[in-house]
Amino acid sequence: MADILIIEDEPMMRLGLKDNLEFEGYRIDLAVSGKEGYEKAIDGSYDLILLDVMLPELSGFEVCKKLRQNGNSTPVILLTARGEEIDKVLGLEIGADDYVTKPFSVRELIARIKALLRRVKTEDQGSAEDLEVRIGRLDIHFGNYTASDGDTEIKMSHKEFEILQYLYQHKNQLVSRYDLLENVWGYEEKPTTRTVDNFMVKLRQKVEANPNQPRIILTVHGAGYKMIY
């Protein structure tokens, strides 16, 4: 069963999550501050991280950003009492995989945990030829989330890798914005389609020889996107 790190400073919430997830069979470790949580998470020994946004010492956003900057790709679900769209977008853009707004039902959270772990397992079982590919200017290794342009490493967020991998898995097919929201973000409280468009702009800047005249990631007006490969 999966190992889950809970980074939460509220004692009742922390222990309640621990009890419920242990009842489901998960192995649980706890941290009570952003600094402690980051120090535990950085070695990558967990299968999933539940990360509160409002934490002492380091915020959940800062913890997630630092993990991704240091190459840690452990799936992260953010927990927060704030529900504004700007917070959701920020959390996703720095590399979080899902976002749950308090108060939430434990059953919903467990369902999201199971769905995210299934998705990661499916990705890990992908065929070897799908893990290392060349897309436009970049050599991409989906298995360890690295990208390079020749000898130059290209920084990409966890979410950018996931979007690019989904497009590659559906190359030469039309992929709607809602396909991406459902299969890459994969939860009910989705960001707007504008968020998808913003990610596409960033990906084109990294993949395309000329981002203003894309040849790899094309827009199908009124419908979505298509990767030509």
Q: How is the main sheet built? A: 5 strands, parallel
What structural class do you assign from the helix and strand content?
A: alpha/beta
Percentage of residues in strands: 15-25%
> Strand tally, please?
12
| N-C termini distance | 38 Å
| SSE run | EHEHEHEHEHHEEEEHEHHEE
Radius of gyration: 18 Å
Question: How many DSSP helices?
Answer: 9
Low-confidence stretches: none
Shape: elongated
Q: Mean pLDDT score, rounded?
A: 86
**Biggest sheet: strand arrangement:** 2-1-3-4-5
* Helix fraction bin: 40-55%
Walk me through this protein's architecture:
The chain has 229 residues and is an alpha/beta fold. The protein has helices spanning 11-23, 34-41, 60-69, 85-93, 106-124, 128-131, 158-169, 177-185, 193-207, and strands at residues 3-7, 27-31, 48-52, 76-80, 98-101, 132-135, 138-141, 146-149, 152-153, 174-175, 217-220, 224-227. Strands 2-1-3-4-5 form a 5-stranded parallel sheet, sandwiched between helices. The protein has a 4-stranded antiparallel sheet with strand order 6-7-8-9. Helix 7 crosses helix 8 (177-185).
Give a quick precis of the structure:
This protein is α/β, with parallel strands linked by helices. Helix content is 43%, strand content 21%.
What labels describe this entry?
229 residues, alpha/beta, 5-stranded parallel beta sheet, 4-stranded antiparallel beta sheet, 9 helices, 43% helix, elongated
Topology at a glance:
Layout: E1 3-7, H1 11-23, E2 27-31, H2 34-41, E3 48-52, H3 60-69, E4 76-80, H4 85-93, E5 98-101, H5 106-124, H6 128-131, E6 132-135, E7 138-141, E8 146-149, E9 152-153, H7 158-169, E10 174-175, H8 177-185, H9 193-207, E11 217-220, E12 224-227
Parallel strand pairs: 1-2, 1-3, 3-4, 4-5
Antiparallel strand pairs: 6-7, 7-8, 8-9, 10-12, 11-12
Helix pairs in contact: 2-3, 7-8
